[in-house]
Amino acid sequence: MRLSTYLIFNGDCKAAFQFYARCLDGNIVAMHTYAEAPEECVQETPPEHRDKIMHARLEIDGQWLMGSDITPQCPAPYEAIKGAHITLNIDTPEDAERIFQALADNGTVQMPLEETFWAKRFAMLTDKYGVPWMINCEKEV
């Protein structure tokens, strides 16, 4: 079994996944647009949405982060993530610093990267794509 996170974007999935690949040293292994879907699906998709991402998968150390742009057929309007964070458990303070700086670029920091009673480094931020993150580099027990 594998537990993965699937993010929904409001039209900027491609840019977000390219950003995450750089920040997290990941590899985009899938990036499919709505135009690449079977013809019956493409016909139902408005032309202005066909270049949007239907499915993306980023591999990071054998783990997956997946996502897509919201479909125009979705009955509910797009809403940003609420009540959850993607947590990155990072091995070294240096990597925590590097990743924090990358994800925080043009984002909003809720808690700056600092030492806590449980972690060598911990931070909370929302990146420029509206995705909330926790950076956690735990102390040895």
UniProtKB/TrEMBL annotation:
PANTHER family: PROTEIN YJDN, PROTEIN YJDN-RELATED. It comes from Litchfieldella anticariensis (strain DSM 16096 / CECT 5854 / CIP 108499 / LMG 22089 / FP35) (Halomonas anticariensis). Residues 3-135 form the Glyoxalase/fosfomycin resistance/dioxygenase domain. It comes from the Bacteria. The lineage of its organism: Bacteria, Pseudomonadati, Pseudomonadota, Gammaproteobacteria, Oceanospirillales. InterPro entries: Glyas_Bleomycin-R_OHBP_Dase, Glyas_Fos-R_dOase_dom, PhnB-like. This is Glyoxalase/fosfomycin resistance/dioxygenase domain-containing protein. It holds the Pfam family Glyoxalase.
